[in-house]
Design a protein that fits this description.
With 230 residues, the protein is an alpha/beta fold. The chain has helices at 10-19, 52-66, 124-136, 157-167, 176-185, 204-229; strands spanning 2-7, 21-28, 31-38, 41-47, 70-79, 89-97, 120-121, 142-149, 169-173, 190-198. The protein binds S-adenosyl-L-homocysteine (SAH).
């Protein structure tokens, strides 16, 4: 079993890479893939860059070239649910690309036309493991719910309200659902674990600068407890 671990930004993978025994390092599509051992597991970890295209390319390389059997996307996100705040962790049970819009044809926002699913469901086992990891880290507040993805840093009260009412989203970010999409098409189990860096409101960019470090610390702690159980 080889686990693929993707983060969008180098700071999201920093703690993890420090803990990893790296056996080899390869460049593909301008991304560095680190193969080795982490907390008792064979892993390939990689920083994919920000946004859906980077994330999709990266997930496909992990699957096609590294034959990973499971994919975990870990990082920070904007909080959408009213009860979620910086530092808290959201485990996705499903994801939607909120910026897909063919509503002109009568489709709901987020529906990818001609695809046989609306949302991308995370693997039940991986969600369960992540939830158990959250129970072990009881100092970190967590919830399970939908994460929505789009090529936009959400920093407006109106947009965040729309994500809540239209999608019942717990959090928003810029990579998760595109990784989920690639995993879905390749029948590879996946889960997305994100810690809140901001509340996607008008001050989001300032909160992001302040809270990303604590978010990364918390999501990495959950990931560690989870990987140790695999
Ligand atoms: N100029 C900034 C851009 C960060 S984009 C920089 O280079 O640091 C925000 C990143 O964090 C994305 O990878 C996204 O997945 C996540 N994220 C955190 N808060 C977000 C929000 N409010 N909206 C969208 N993505 C968010």
């Amino acid at each position: 079993m080889t686990l693929g671990i993707i983060s969008a930004m180098s700071e999201e993978l920093e703690i993890l890479l420090g803990a990893m025994e790296v056996e080899s390092k390869n460049e593909r599509a301008n991304m560095t893939f680190y193969k080795g051992k982490l907390w008792g597991q064979e892993v390939v970890s990689v920083v994919c860059g920000i946004g859906k295209v980077n994330a999709a390319i990266c997930a496909q390389i992990l699957i096609s070239e590294y034959n990973v059997s499971k994919v975990i996307n870990v990082g920070v996100a904007g909080g959408v649910d009213k009860n979620i705040f910086p530092g808290d962790v959201v485990i996705a049970n499903n994801l939607v690309q909120y910026d897909m819009d063919t509503t002109a044809f009568g489709d709901p926002f987020g529906q990818i036309p001609r695809l046989d699913t609306f949302d991308f469901k995370c693997d039940d086992e991986l969600v369960k493991l992540a939830e158990e990891a959250c129970k072990e880290n009881s100092d970190i507040k967590s919830m399970t719910g939908r994460i929505v993805t789009g090529d936009q840093f959400v920093a407006s009260v109106d947009k965040v309200k729309w994500l809540e009412t239209e999608f019942n989203a717990a959090a928003c970010e810029m990579e998760g659902a595109s990784i989920a999409h690639v995993c879905y098409l390749n029948s590879v189990p996946f889960v997305v674990i994100r810690s809140i860096s901001d509340n996607a409101n008008n001050g989001a960019h300032m909160d992001f600068a302040e809270f990303t470090a604590i978010g990364v610390k918390n999501s990495t702690a959950i990931l560690k407890s989870m990987v140790e159980k695999m």
